[in-house]
Amino acid sequence: MDFLNHLDQLSIDVSQIDKELFTRFDVKRGLRNQNGSGVLVGLTNIGDVVGYEKEGDKVIPAHGRLYYRGLEVTELVKGFQQDGRHGYDETVFLLLSGKLPTKDELMRFTSYLAGLRDLPQYFTKNMILSLRGRNIMNMLARSALVLYTMDDYAEDHSHMNVLRQSLNLIAKFPVITAYSYFGFRHSYQRKSLIIRHPEPGLSTAENFLYMIKGDRYTRLEADILDLNLVLHAEHGGGNNSTFTTRVVSSAGTDTYSTIAAALGSLKGFLHGGANLQVVEMIRDIKKNVKDWTDKNELSEYLLKILHGHAGDGSGKIYGIGHAIYTLSDPRAILLKQKAKELADEKGKMDEFSLYDNIEQLAPEVLAKFKGGDNVKIVSPNVDFYSGFVYRCIDLPMELYTPIFAVSRMAGWCAHRIEEITSSSKRIIRPAYKNVYGQVEYENLEERTR
Q1: Ranges in the chain annotated CATH 1.10.580.10
Q2: Which terminus has fewer CB within 10 Å in the chain: N or C?
């Protein structure tokens, strides 16, 4: 153990890099420009995330817009909600094909996905229920790799075959996620093992709720889960898990290895786990703020959080701010509208009001905390309300990030297809400058440290 501690300290020491060197060599840390915008590293036809306008090197805040294949997501959502139907299958079709489906195409596409959902019995028994894990995201990554062994054409990178693989993953992952949860629950929480087979006549959202809750879900719960799936399906090529998808795809590997890598990225608490942090923050606020309606008391506690004297000590108000969106996140706006309906249905309007008050107060508190004239404009992101929605639906926290994965599978697959099809395909290989310097070799007997 002493030797391991010694090695640990050596590893820490050698991993330190003088922050001044990043400035001297103009390193784009996190692939970000000095003004916070992302470094342009690729082109895509799939998604576009707009949160600001640029005038030279200056960033001008703007209300957020999210486009799927050129169609603003707000208009997409308005369309299927006005028709009183669910929109996730339609969104998948749009992302993969580049167009909205006709009525006949949508019916055939939905039927095709429904026919792929069921898992082979041996896969469920041997790969999910027998090999349980403490984190469902890791179980999903393992399942993706096991699907490779079941595919006779796993290494066929032709467009048609990758499309086939993509549709199979999109259809099966809600089922794999539900079964993985019950395997986890049975093993680590000592609760009943429940397996419900997907129903062909239900939408993706309805099926997922049915597999998790049986018939104990409302129409509004299904509507809002469907909305969440649509809003998380794609977010441009630069988000961490999608960029991972493109990086790994550019190396020429198979679809299943690519998706396993994307899942590993999404598992990270700085990416897919953000809504969990919001839920924990709200739980802490409810515990320590006596009057949720007292904006002065709430502001003072938010300021304590920013100073690192409250909450988890991170100094962050989770769910507020985004890498691209400034004045607003269109996903948060759409989700908040439905979240209010759900809160009313579930008798949780007092808690919804707490979220609303934090949303209103956070920018002002952040400005007070940072001071000066160059305070970044912030607004709530989609994670701010998604955790609240899942709690209202009574979904376990272990499923929050896996549901994100179920949804984003559509975007990952679309970007993989584009990456391996694009005429400009080259392996993605950014540069890292070595700043360690050079040393002379020493004979073993001469080494004193």
Answers
A1: 65-270+396-421
A2: C
Cα–Cα distance, 431 to 39 (Å, whole number): 13
SS3 44: coil
Amino acid present at 370? K
By CB atoms closer than 10 A (0-12, 13-18, 19+), residue 8 is exposed
Give the model's pLDDT for residue 36. 75
Considering only CA atoms, which of 383, 412, 391, 394 is closest in space to residue 141?
A: 412
Within 13 Å of residue 412, how many CA atoms lie on the same side as its CB? 33
Instruction: Tell me whether strands 58-68 and 71-72 are parallel, antiparallel or unpaired.
Output: antiparallel
Chain-wide mean pLDDT for the chain?
93
The H or E element spanning position 65 is strand 58-68
pLDDT in tens, 234-290: 999 999 999 999 999 999 999 999 999 999 999 998 888 889 999 999 999 999 999
Query: Residue 31 region, left (φ>0) first, then alpha (ψ -120 to 50), else beta?
Result: left
Residues of the chain with CATH 1.10.230.10: 274-392
Cα 357 to Cα 88, 159, 176, 317: the distances in Å are 31, 49, 38, 13
In the three-class reduction of DSSP (H, G, I as helix; E, B as strand; rest coil), residue 165 is classed as helix
349-404 confidence digits (pLDDT tens): 999 999 999 999 999 999 989 886 667 789 999 999 999 999 999 999 999 999 99
pLDDT tens sequence across 284-327: 999 999 999 999 999 999 999 999 999 999 999 999 999 899 99
Q: Around 40, how many Cα atoms within 13 Å sit in the side-chain half-sphere?
A: 3
State the Cα–Cα distance between residues 222 and 228, nearest whole angstrom: 10
301 φ, ψ (degrees, to nearest 5): -70, -40
Q: Could you please state the CATH topology (level 3) that the domain comprising 274-392 is classified under.
A: Cytochrome p450-Terp; domain 2 (1.10.230)
Please list the alpha-helical segments (H only) found in 309-348.
Answer: 330-346
User: Under a CB-based contact definition with an 8 Å cutoff, are residues 90 and 68 in contact?
Assistant: no
* Fold of the 65-270+396-421 domain: Citrate Synthase; domain 1 (1.10.580)
Token pair in block for residue 95: 């992302």
Instruction: Report phi then psi at 49, rounded to 5.
Output: -115, 120
For the chain, give the number of residues: 449
Closest by alpha carbon to 223, among 111, 110, 101, 341? 341
Cα separation, 138 vs 152, in Å, equals 24
